[in-house]
């Protein structure tokens, strides 16, 4: 993972400077995390020619992997700058049992995928959520949502992650059986970028290089960070550095 982050850092080519003042406070993004499955099994993932065995003997080991994900994402964010200015803080990490998980049954292509729009509707009625800036919801299964629906045609698409449109502070990540997978860091960073107010990078810029804020459906061999992403974090720092 460290090598992966180092390679990304070499691709950035953009590093906003922060004035070197001693003991300046960092801005904290408080994250509340719910995982919606019991990670106590062995999963064999076929990925091209490689077989990856993901083993979690208990939920404590899984939670440790999630904490590492947040730490790695924090490291990646702060690599944009000359010093650490953003802290990602887990304020809770809890199991959320959804007894009747809303799943797509039709069309057949999406059968068994989580209907994330319906899950977000469940959270919309919650009045006593623990205090956090972002609520992260993790799913074991693939995740999809309805893009558009008319009398004659319904368009559905799979998602790696999605920022909640209701309230703007809930993020869901799909197929999260392995929090140590490198792309989980990039997916989380992508969704936090949306939380910071960023849109997707124009498709033309994503044809050869996959920027973090590209639509995840576009797959290229290189990954780079959009210039507006570090700028958004710097803006967040300037607005919140004295609120911790």
Description:
The protein has 244 residues and is α/β, with parallel strands linked by helices. The chain has 2 domains: 27-196, 3-Layer(aba) Sandwich (Collagenase (Catalytic Domain)); 201-227, no CATH class. The protein has helices at 2-12, 59-78, 116-124, 182-195, 228-240, and strands at residues 27-35, 42-47, 50-55, 86-95, 114-115, 134-138, 143-149, 154-159, 161-163, 170-173, 210-211, 223-224. The strands form 4 sheets. It has a 5-stranded mixed β-sheet with strand order 4-1-6-10-9. The protein has a 3-stranded mixed β-sheet with strand order 5-7-8. It has a two-stranded antiparallel sheet with strand order 2-3. A hairpin with a 4-residue loop joins strand 7 (143-149) and strand 8 (154-159). The longest helix is centred in the N-terminal third of the chain and has 20 residues, at 59-78. It is globular, with a radius of gyration of 18 Å. The two termini are 29 Å apart. Keywords: Signal. It comes from Candidatus Giovannonibacteria bacterium RIFCSPLOWO2_01_FULL_45_34. GO terms for molecular function: metallopeptidase activity.
